[in-house]
C-alpha cells in the first residue's frame, strides 16, 4: 500500500514504518522535515503539512496517529485545549481531503484511546461499554466522531482505542520503570486500579491487521487481553528488572504532582480487545509477564 501517515516520528508510527517499510511505501507529515528524514530514513517521503498535498487519490490508506502527549504536562485549561486541538484539527483536515476525492483512500485508521470510556473501576470494559462523561471521554468521543465523518461508502474507517504501550524505546514504561531502577519502586495509590496495556510489537501488528482486514470497521480496543492491577504490574515489572518492589506512592502525592491527569493512573480501566480477538487477531505477547520479560530480557 501507499500510506499517508501522521505522527510518523512518534513511538508507534516510527515502529510501524520500521517493521513494514519493506511491504508498504510511506509519506509522513512532519513540521521538521530534516529531523524526520534523519529518524525514518530516505525511503520515506516527508512533507511539511497536509495542505501541500494536492489530492489523496494516490494513497491507498491514511493512518492518523498525531497528537500532543496527553500525560506529559498538568491539565491546565491551556494544555487541555492543546491536547484536543492537536487531535481534532488534523483529523478534520484529513477527513476533508479524503471526502474531496472521487477515488479516496480505501481505508482510514485514526487514533483514539481507552480514555474514551472514562474511569470504570474493576468493571470489564469492551467496545460496547457505556462511557463515563469526563475529559478523556469528551476528547476521544469528538476525535472519533470527526474521523467517522469520512464518507464510509468509499472509505472504511477504524478508530484505534489504544491502551498504555509498553516498549524499551520510551513512552509510559520509561517513566514507570525509573523508580525501580533507583531501587524505590512500588505500587501507586491503592494498587487495585487496572492497567490496560499492549506491547509495542503487538500494537503495530494490530494496526497492520486492521489495515488489511476489510471486514473490520468502527472502534477497536488496542490492548492486550490480560489487563492487570497496578499491584500486579508493579511486582511483575520489579521481577523483570531484578529490582525490589517495596514502596507505595499514596494517591494524594500523585494528585499534588500531576493534578487532574493523575486520574488516568489512580483510577484505571480494565479494558479487553473483544472485537480484535473476535476478528482473529493473535497476540504474540498476551500476558504482562511475557511482555516485560521480553523488554528486560537483556
TrEMBL record:
GO MF annotation, one: hydrolase activity
Superkingdom assignment: Bacteria
Positions of the DUF1731 domain: 249-295
Pfam families in the cross-refs: DUF1731 (PF08338), Epimerase (PF01370)
Domain NAD-dependent epimerase/dehydratase: 3-221
Cleavable signal peptide: none
InterPro entries: DUF1731, Epimerase_deHydtase, NAD(P)-bd_dom_sf, SDR39U1
Descriptive protein name: Glycoside hydrolase, family GHnc
Organism: Alteromonas macleodii
Amino acid at each position: 500500500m501507499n500510506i499517508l501517515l501522521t505522527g510518523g516520528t512518534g513511538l508507534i508510527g516510527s515502529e510501524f514504518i520500521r517493521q513494514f517499510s519493506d511491504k508498504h511505501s510511506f509519506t509522513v507529515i512532519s513540521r521538521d522535515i530534516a529531523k524526520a528524514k534523519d529518524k525514518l530514513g530516505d525511503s520515506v517521503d516527508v512533507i511539511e503539512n497536509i495542505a501541500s498535498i494536492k489530492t489523496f487519490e494516490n494513497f491507498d490508506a491514511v493512518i492518523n496517529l498525531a497528537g500532543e502527549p496527553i500525560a506529559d504536562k498538568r491539565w491546565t485549561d491551556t494544555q487541555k485545549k492543546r491536547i484536543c486541538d492537536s487531535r481534532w484539527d488534523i483529523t478534520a483536515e484529513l477527513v476533508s481531503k479524503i471526502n474531496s476525492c472521487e477515488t479516496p483512500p480505501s481505508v482510514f485508521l485514526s487514533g483514539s484511546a481507552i480514555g474514551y470510556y472514562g474511569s470504570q473501576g474493576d468493571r470489564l470494559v469492551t467496545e460496547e461499554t457505556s462511557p463515563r462523561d469526563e475529559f478523556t471521554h469528551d476528547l476521544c468521543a469528538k476525535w472519533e466522531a470527526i474521523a467517522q465523518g469520512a464518507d464510509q461508502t468509499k472509505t472504511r474507517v477504524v478508530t484505534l482505542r489504544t491502551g498504555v504501550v509498553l516498549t524499551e524505546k520510551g513512552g509510559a514504561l520509561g517513566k514507570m520503570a525509573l523508580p525501580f531502577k533507583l531501587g524505590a519502586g512500588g505500587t501507586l495509590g491503592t494498587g487495585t486500579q487496572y492497567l490496560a496495556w499492549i506491547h509495542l510489537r503487538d500494537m503495530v501488528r494490530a494496526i497492520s491487521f486492521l489495515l488489511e482486514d476489510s471486514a473490520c470497521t468502527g472502534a477497536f480496543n488496542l490492548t492486550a487481553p490480560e489487563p492487570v492491577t497496578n499491584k500486579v504490574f508493579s511486582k511483575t515489572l520489579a521481577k523483570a528488572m531484578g529490582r525490589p518492589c517495596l514502596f507505595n506512592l499514596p494517591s494524594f502525592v500523585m494528585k499534588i504532582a500531576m493534578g487532574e491527569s493523575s486520574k488516568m493512573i489512580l483510577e484505571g480501566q480494565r479494558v479487553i480487545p473483544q472485537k480484535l480477538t473476535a476478528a482473529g487477531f493473535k497476540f504474540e505477547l498476551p500476558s504482562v509477564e511475557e511482555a516485560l520479560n521480553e523488554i528486560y530480557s537483556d
